[in-house]
Every structure is written in structure tokens, then in C-alpha cells.
Amino acid sequence: MAATTTLQKPPSWPEQLVWLLFDTARQTPAHWLFLGFIALLGLGLATIFVGLHLLAPKPRAPSPSEKTYITTNPDGTASSPRPLPCWYDRWLAEGRLRQESRYPTIPAGFPVPDTGAIEPAEVDISVVIPAYNEEDRIIPTLEEMVEYLDQRFGRPASSAAATTAASPGKKKKFGAGAGSATKPHRLVFKNQHGGGAAAAAKDTSPPPSGGYEIIIVNDGSRDRTVQVALDFSRRYGLHDVLRVVTLERNRGKGGGVTHGFRHVRGRYAVFADADGASRFSDLGKLIEGCEDVVDGSNRGVAIGSRAHLVGSEAVVKRSAIRNFLMRSFHFVLMILTPPATSRIRDTQCGFKLFSRAALPHIVPYMHSEGWIFDIEMLMLAESAPATPVLAGDGSVIGSSYGIKVAEVPVAWHEVDGSKMNLVQDSVRMAVGLAVLRASWMLGVYRRRLA
Prior knowledge:
By secondary structure, the chain is of the alpha/beta class. It has helices at residues 13-27, 30-55, 87-101, 138-152, 157-166, 196-202, 225-235, 253-261, 283-293, 313-316, 320-336, 339-342, 373-382, 422-441, and strands at 68-69, 82-83, 123-131, 212-218, 242-246, 266-272, 301-305, 351-355, 387-390, 396-400, 405-409.
């Protein structure tokens, strides 16, 4: 019988490439291999750096109309656009002036501290509500807010006087329209003005006269959100207390909150979702949590947390895919964020409060305008410049890096009508978080004047 011969199949091109590389590496000196590896690594990092510059979000500058607001007049008519107060513009102008002067009195190479100076507050509380097509959900939220704020803080004296003069016999649903709070509220900062003991000694401006403001940032809504909000303001006499700012184009929740925070006048600034999922009366808990962690410059952050609800009926009723995506995102968060932020159990609750002194260290450096803007805020708080630690006599005994964040359990319930696409937005959040973290690590984003 004739012997049979088997034909060997020629290697595929990937196999040939691997053998070629292996043979080349075996014949190349080690130092050349090392230099080649360093060159490839550098090329890879440069490619990532250029790619991040092209892909990383860059917020657009606000248009002139976005720096105005409308409200209701005491006679019930809608006001014409009014200039919106903006601490950010003044902070930016002063920062550029300091930068141009090049600090002539400070020796070369001396680290110049970021003082985070900000003009004094005019009211106690500023509430920012980002709103996109919220005509069906915003009224119950506003009712809860105004009832609580009237009782705890009262209205600014000017607004209360205008309301009384316009309708002296009109009975309000919420009973604190006289301009003073009916119940005490906790405001026990180490000193009344941000910036530490030295700044407090120099600051002779009067403290805020009390009251609150509500800034609704209309994020390019196509429904009657603005009309509904103004009707509510007219009905409850919130003249110049409730202010509506309209963005020409939709920027996303993060863009709306950042824009609103640039214009707050309060000693505290809090943002809350328009759907009212978080119980607004828990604001008192956030204030106490913030004051428990404020540093020598009165910088502090308190965030509402739903972590205590894990395992409760509110979470168990959610779909399995939603709970899976929630846990997966939290796992990614722990890997990609710096230590203090990674330990926060709930970064996405739409109920967060900031002391006024903390704002200049966070708001000017925001880039993300999507769903993960909360995480960037927390990362910026963690990386904020050091502030002096003061002894009881006012002397400096050390320094404290970063702004402390208090995680405060709040009541929360599911509300229908969410505009979040569960799967698509979850993937976008994970990708956005990776881009955000890489941009800050590689210097694409920096703490610099925009």
C-alpha cells in the first residue's frame, strides 16, 4: 500500500506576524527593545492626550440673553428681562487682574494660594432647579419648597413689602410672607463671611438680611415650563424671589446647574431636581451636615444620599436591569475616582448643598454638562486647595486639603416621567466618567481661569 502524505496548512498572517516579531525581538539588543517600548508608550500617551483634547467636553460660553432673568411684578404681570447678578464674572475678572499683575510683591517661585474670594451673600438660601420640559412635575416641587422655605427662612424684606403693598388683603397659602422666618434655622458658620479669620476681620459688609431665592434654569424646554412657573410665582406672590433663566439651547442637567450656580446670591446654594423625588424638608439636614464639616474658610459640601434605601421597597421594586446597572456604575466609580469621592455611596442623588465659600473652588472649573456632572463637582471639592486650620485663638496651626463632603440620608421616592434612557445613558455615563478622569489626570482639564 502506498504511503499517504499529509500537507501542512500554511500559517495564517497573524501567526506569521507574531513569529516575525518574536524573531526580531530575539535578535535585537535589550537596550534597543527598552527604548522602543518607551517610544511606543510615549506615542500612545500622546495619542490619548490629543484624542482627549478633541473629545473631552468643553462648555460653551453663555449668551447675553442667558445672563438675564424674568419674574413676576407685584401687579401680576411678567417682568421684562432683568440683569442676573453674577458672582462668577466678578471672580473671573479679579482673577485675571491678579494673574496679569504677576504678583509683584511675592518672591519668584513662591506658591500663591487660591483664596477663593467671593462677594458677600445677599440671602440665606439659593435654590437652583434645572428644568427641561417639566410643566407636569414642577408645581408640586415648588409648593413643597416654598412652604418649607417660608417657614424656615422667610422671604427677603423687599419682596415681602412689595407683595403686601400689591395685595394687602390677599391670604397666602404659605404663611411666612412677612419677610421673617416663623421657625429658627441653623446658621452657625465659624464666622459669617467666607475666607477664614483673616478675611472675616477685614470684611465689614453686612450679613444677608435673610430670605431665599429660587432660580429655575429653563434648559431649552419646548413645553409650558416657563409659563407654569410664572403662574405659580404670581399666585403665591414670589415677586423677584422666583427667577426664571432661559438657556437658548439645551445644555444638559449639569450645564443648567452650573449656570445657575454662577448666579446664586445665597450663603448656601442647593440644587434640587424638578421632579421632587427627594423630600425638600430634608434641606435642614443638609445644612447641619455642611456645617459639621466646614473648614477654617467656611468651605463645605453636603449631599443627599439614598444609600440607606438599598434593600428597601423603593429599590427592590425597580427592574433587575436598573439595579444591575446601578451596581455596575458604582463599581466603575470606585475604580476611576480619587479616594474620597470613591467612598461616597450615592453620588447621583439630585439634592446637593454647597457653602458659598466652596463655590469658587468648584463652579469655575466645571466641564461636564451631562449626567455625571455631580461626580466632577465632588472630585473638584476633593482636590480643592488647602486652607488654614485655626486654633481657638485664631492662630494658624496647620492646613487642610480639599473640601469635606458630608453624605446625609434623605427621604426619596420614585417619580414617573424620567428623561433618562436607562441603557444608553448608563453607557454614556461610564464612558464620560473615563474621559473625565483621564482629562483631569493628563492635564487636559486644569484649575485655570477660563
